[in-house]
């Protein structure tokens, strides 16, 4: 009722205003549409027509705008709803994939892909299904399709590169990692992956160049120290490659610098000595080996010294070095082992037995020690002692137990277990020589008669 009253009031006000305007503007207005067509109307009527036309155009534009907005909103709602439905199917497929139900996962993910063939995440999940089913080529093709949709997608590129790498297609993996680095020169993950491939291929200089770039962008933190150690190792590998290719001078320069930076880095000392030997600088080589052992107590230096002096037919100098070192550190059991072996080679059997016995009584117990002791006792005709040491070396007991070995981890046991105590694999313990015995065939030909052979 109020609304009707207000409309009536508005109409009255408009009518009064219109009559007043017409009264004070009695003239006519002529409007030409063309040179031949024109309309003559009172000024008040003309004004009303203009207002009505303006209102009509304005309302029409507003109606069209509202219509297009509603249509767009409706279409967007359908797209959102479709996306939610596809997302739900995709999540169900991924859930099946994670639970190991590859068949159902494939069905769901293909359904999602049929609904929207531009979903990169669906291609990635389907590729994972194919790879787990060992359908390598299918997985790679799916990843390539994902790459076409998202050429610079980091997840897609890494997945494709690691798939190539896992299937020994290293050249293709290298190409992907290089593409990644072209778009993102500071991508450390791509650099490390590319570096590791180059290391596997023994391309040490390429790996070193990559490592230098990694160091530049890894300046602080715990990883920075790890990367610096990796840099030293790669510099060493380049130096060792130089030595192998006949460039000992460059190897010497690099190894000496590495030792200055990390005195505990054994390979650099060993290769430095080897490079000196290549140049016939024997005194320098011996000095490096001796200093290496005194500093690091690593057996490789003793092995290098022994190789040098035995080849030079000068075991006396080596013996003198061993004895002088024993005077400096009589508790050096590693040196005592090498000294005892040298004594045995020089037929200094009594001294060898003394040093080997010292090792055994100190609690050292390994096969080589028992073999050396057995050989020493054999040379002294101590048959019982020699046999006892051979039994220890061969781990033979009075029951002649054959023992068991785990086919999965290689651990050995005297007793059988249904489940390997070390790697926890069930039903993995067998006789160590089982495969060898099963592969052999019993000889059915004529056999020699032992006593007949002895009578000839």
> Could you tell me the strand content as a percent range?
under 5%
Low-confidence stretches: 452-456
Strand order in space, largest sheet: 4-3-5
Broad shape? elongated
Strand-and-helix sequence, N→C? HEEHHHHHHHHHHHHHHHHHHEEEHH
Identify the quaternary structure here: single chain
Please describe what this structure looks like.
This protein has 456 residues and is mainly α. Among the domains are: 11-99, no CATH class; 401-445, no CATH class. The protein contains 21 helices and 5 strands. The N and C termini lie far apart (143 Å).
Entry keywords:
mainly alpha; three-stranded antiparallel β-sheet; 456 residues; disordered C terminus; 4% strand
What is this structure's SSE topology?
Layout (H helix, E strand, L loop, with lengths): L1 H23 L3 E5 L5 E5 H57 L2 H14 L4 H13 L3 H14 L4 H13 L3 H14 L4 H13 L3 H14 L4 H23 L3 H14 L4 H13 L3 H15 L2 H13 L3 H14 L4 H13 L3 H13 L5 H13 L3 H12 L9 E3 L5 E2 L15 E2 L3 H6 L10 H6 L1
Antiparallel strand pairs: 1-2, 3-4, 3-5
Helix pairs in contact: 2-3, 2-4, 3-4, 4-5, 5-6, 6-7, 7-8, 8-9, 9-10, 10-11, 10-12, 11-12, 12-13, 13-14, 14-15, 14-16, 15-16, 16-17, 16-18, 17-18, 18-19
Task: Summarize the entry for a quick read.
With 456 residues, this protein is mainly alpha-helical. The chain has 21 helices and five strands.
């Amino acid at each position: 009722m109020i609304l009707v009253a207000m409309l009536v009031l508005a109409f009255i006000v408009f009518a009064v205003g219109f009559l007043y305007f017409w009264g004070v503007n009695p003239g006519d207005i002529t409007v030409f549409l063309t040179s031949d067509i024109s309309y003559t109307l009172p000024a008040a009527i003309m004004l009303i027509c203009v207002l009505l036309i303006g209102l009509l155009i304005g309302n029409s534009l507003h109606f069209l705008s509202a219509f297009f907005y509603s249509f767009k909103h409706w279409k967007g709602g359908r797209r959102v709803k479709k996306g939610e439905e596809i997302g739900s199917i995709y999540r169900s497929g991924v859930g099946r994939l994670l639970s190991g139900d590859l068949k159902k996962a494939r069905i769901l993910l293909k359904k999602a892909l049929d609904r929207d063939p531009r979903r990169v995440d669906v291609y990635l999940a389907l590729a994972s299904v194919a790879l787990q089913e060992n359908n390598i080529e299918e997985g790679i093709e799916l990843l390539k399709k994902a790459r076409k949709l998202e050429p610079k997608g980091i997840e897609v590129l890494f997945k494709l590169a690691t798939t190539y790498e896992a299937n020994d297609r290293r050249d293709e993996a290298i190409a992907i990692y290089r593409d990644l680095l072209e778009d993102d020169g500071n991508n450390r993950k791509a650099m490390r992956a590319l570096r590791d491939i180059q290391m596997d291929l023994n391309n040490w200089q390429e790996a070193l160049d990559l490592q230098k770039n990694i160091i530049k962008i890894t300046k602080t933190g715990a990883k920075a120290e790890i990367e610096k150690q990796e840099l030293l190792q790669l510099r060493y590998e380049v130096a060792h490659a130089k030595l192998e290719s006949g460039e000992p001078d460059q190897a010497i320069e690099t190894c000496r610098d590495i030792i200055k930076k990390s005195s505990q880095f054994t390979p650099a000392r060993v290769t430095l000595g080897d490079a000196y030997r290549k140049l016939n600088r024997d005194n320098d080589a011996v000095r490096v080996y001796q200093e290496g052992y005194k500093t690091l107590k690593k057996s490789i230096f003793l092995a290098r010294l022994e190789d040098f002096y035995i080849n030079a037919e000068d075991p006396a100098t080596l013996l003198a070095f061993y004895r002088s070192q024993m005077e400096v550190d009589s508790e050096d059991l590693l040196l005592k082992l090498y000294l005892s072996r040298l004594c045995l080679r020089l037929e200094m059997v009594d001294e060898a037995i003394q040093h080997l016995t010292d090792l055994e009584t100190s609690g050292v117990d390994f096969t080589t020690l028992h073999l050396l002791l057995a050989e020493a006792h054999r040379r002294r005709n101590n048959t019982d002692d020699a046999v006892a040491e051979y039994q220890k070396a061969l781990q033979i007991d009075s029951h002649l137990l054959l023992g068991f070995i785990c086919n999965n981890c290689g651990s050995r046991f005297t007793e059988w277990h249904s489940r390997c105590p070390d790697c926890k694999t069930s039903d993995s313990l067998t006789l160590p020589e089982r495969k060898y015995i099963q592969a052999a065939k019993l000889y059915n030909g004529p056999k020699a008669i032992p006593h007949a052979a002895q009578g000839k």
